[in-house]
Amino acid sequence: MAFAVTNVVVRKIGEVPIGMKMGSAWLGVLGLTLCGLLIAQPQLPELTVQSGVLAFLIGFPMMYVLTWTAQYGVTFLPIQRSSVILLLEIVAGAVSAAFLTNEIVSNIEYIGGALIIFAGLISVLKEKTGDISAYKSSST
After folding, report:
1. Which of 14, 24, 98, 131 lies at a CB distance of 3.0 to 4.6 Å from 126, suitable for a disulfide?
2. Full residue range of the structural domain in which residue 130 is found
3. 20-43 pLDDT per residue, tens
4. Do 86 and 3 form a contact (C-beta atoms < 8 A)?
5. Does residue 25 share a domain with residue 93?
6. What does the pLDDT read at residue 111?
7. What pLDDT, in 10s, does the model give residues 52-88?
8. Are the CB atoms for 71 and 10 separated by under 8 Å?
9. Is the same domain home to 56 and 1?
């Protein structure tokens, strides 16, 4: 649901510079993270200066590029395509979790991933045949 809301809101505020959209996205993530930490109250890991600097040097440029590309894509791509791209992030996250942490993927997750990929294929096919009217009009 958050992906759909993000897609619609970013498109609706199309005249706002991408830098401003990125800043609001980061503030939103920070706010949701703090709420999650307050609710779950997990034990936080130890943070050394070295690990903090390394996380910042790797994390900040990566998050900057990822946020910029997402905001750019949602702002300038047709809504059907940007929706599928945002949903593919979920598939990429699940695949990464399975490979990097040996998380077990359930059958329902495989089905969900397949449906997302299938939706992307339908969107591409409809775009090629001209069946999606939003592709023919300018962004609103």
Report:
1. 131
2. 78-140
3. 888 888 888 888 889 999 999 888
4. yes
5. no
6. 93
7. 999 999 999 998 998 888 888 778 887 777 777 777 8
8. yes
9. yes
pTM of the model: 0.61
What value, to the nearest 5°, has the Cα angle with vertex 7 and ends 89 and 99?
5
Give the CA angle between residues 20, 22, 23 to the nearest 5°. Answer: 65
Residues 107, 135 contacting (CB under 8 angstroms)? no
For helices 79-101 and 49-76, angle between their N-to-C axes, nearest 10 degrees: 150
Do both 40 and 6 map to the same domain?
Answer: yes
C-alpha dist (Å) from residue 98 to 10, 59, 61, 84, 101: 30, 21, 25, 21, 6
Dist CA 60 CA 96 (whole Å): 20
- Residues 113 and 92: their CA atoms lie apart, in Å, by 9
